[in-house]
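User: Batch of two.

Assistant: Item 1 of 2:
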Amino acid sequence: MRAWLVDQWRKRLGTFGLIGPSIAQCAVGAALAWLVAVHLLGHPNPLFAPVSVMICVGIGFGRRLRRLAELVIGVSLGVGVGDLLVSWIGSGPWQLAFVIALAMTVAWLLNSSELFVSQAGSSAVLVAMLVPGTDGGGLDRMVDALTGGVVGIAAVALLPASPLTIAGRHLSGVLDAFSTMLEQAAEAIEKGDADLAAEALECGRRTQTAVEEFTAALDNSKEIIRISPLRWHHRARLARYQTAALPVDLALRNARVLVRRTLAAMGEPMPPPVALAELLREVSEAALLLQLELGAGREPTLARQALLAVAARERPKNLGFSANVIIAQLRSIAVDLLQATGMDHDEASATLTPLDELSDENMRG
């Protein structure tokens, strides 16, 4: 238990660099929004100014501009409905329930976004319970929400996280998992070990979460570059990560099929030949080269060369069904990863050795 806690703590510390800038943006932005609302706008209790910064910036990934629009409109809707109804029907438990239900219903009919609906409801609560019936309060709170949203976007622009760090760390997680899966499958083939193959398959089943996190990280990185002039010079390097995103996802899916077939082959009379293990390792190493070159901001030429060498290998014959499936998946993975290096699909597919040119010697070679 202690070892598990220590491991989790280390993982948290290792990923703190990803959310640290967002925490700083929230803290500084909330304080600035409060100062602007109090000293420039003359609002004595600008509750919505720092709150809107927190919601707009947050510590999650992506779509902050959309969150800002939903926040401001949601707050305005909730405040408007709350102020209007409270001035007519007063405040109390049933009035509170009615205000919330009406504000959230209207919000849902306008936009089914969870943030939009919940913000309209929570704003109505605050209006109904904290300051019911205050003249001009609704307009002040709408202005506070807008102020906080603008300050939040300014905090993102002036205190930006590194989009390349965000994208790079998440892609590293994906490619590390991919490489580990192929290494385990290679060892399972060499040793004829079904347990190792099962472990590789279990590793593969966990990779989709990493892919989804990488996709979200890319969205966040693109938004940072769009908002912050300080990060505009990173556009070209981020474009390489965008190019790699879909092909790497496809490569992982093909790798899971490959490992599943490897596990099934462990009980067959004709298991996959040991020579296949070397090919798996070559693809694994090419994926790590791709990771390193993208992280260094270089064109992934070394990874491409390594994958071209795999693609040029000729397919042996008379290997049995499972071995042929593994080779077919390996060819698909090579095409996927070549696309991740920047090649188009037709160009990558053309690098594969034709299936009618068969040679056991070249597989060994």
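Item 2 of 2:
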Amino acid sequence: MTATPHFTGDASPYGGGDPYADHRTADFPFTRLVDLADRRLGAGVVAANDEFFAERENLLRPEPAEFDPERFGHKGKIMDGWETRRRRGTGATEPHPTDEDHDWALVRLGAPGVVRGLIVDTAHFRGNYPQSVSVEATSLPGSPSPEDLLAPDVTWTTLVPRTAVGGHAANGFTVEAEQRFTHLRVNQHPDGGIARLRVHGEVAPDPGWLAALGTFDVAALENGGQVEDASDRFYSPPTNTIAPGRSRQMDDGWETRRRRDKGNDWIRYRLTAQSEIRAVEIDTAYLKGNAAGWAALSIRDGEGAEWAELLPRTRLQPDTNHRFVLPAPVRGTHVRIDIFPDGGISRLRLFGSLTGEGAARLAARHEALGG
């Protein structure tokens, strides 16, 4: 396994021009997984002990943090992130904070799941970032309040031990804990600012909830669907196609570069578990001059099984939601969409229900993850 790149120390003061020109980052492989703290999935920062300079909610904003060198308010420089006041010691003889002093924020994941990697991005916090960070996680049922999460009987698992970080840098951490979590506690030692938090992993849905629903979208992120691979990620990630809701603008879907050969583009999905699919939606919302011309769906039942036709090659219209009722339920664990020749779709919905075998496997995994 390749070691995760690590950054420490101050960044240079902002000298004008593009503020991201000297932002330190790396290609973290886990970023291809879904962000479990995505606001579109329902994530939120439910509490923080201090947000004097900048609000905790900024941590989960989907767009990169912005920097305006001229923007000041009554409390000082306004930053696009979560920033706490400077900690002080107990008095003139002890002016410095103790080693245990720190600030914290509680994050509700949008979808409970297994965390594979985190990014604590200190973009634009060049000399006012935390000296170190740590991240813990827990799993509680229902909709716990901050008081519930901070109760003394709640068990927290360390995902990232206290680790020195760098200013104006995407600080990435690989996570090894094979457990299902619902909430995180992000700690900055002793104080400072964090621009963005990204929590990449795999959704682990509640089997009881899916059983109660009966029929649901078996490819959706919030239900445990996952993109395994795709031919092209040039303009936007294929994971957008199974995100909640309809696309709200062009880059909220999946768009490929223009092909100059005779091939085609595709995405391969792993479903929640073995399912029987009865209806399909292929949406090209906001893709008007760049929608795929045609699409076809294939399905297979198990790793390495042969692909079979689910939906034949079908003409697509721009900016349109296409609906198809299948003549009979089709069973499988993986689905592939091929678009011809290139372009994009905004959403794919596969409506069906789990088979008995699929439900049993999902329940066993849920139990193994501590659910």
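The chain has a mean pLDDT of 95.
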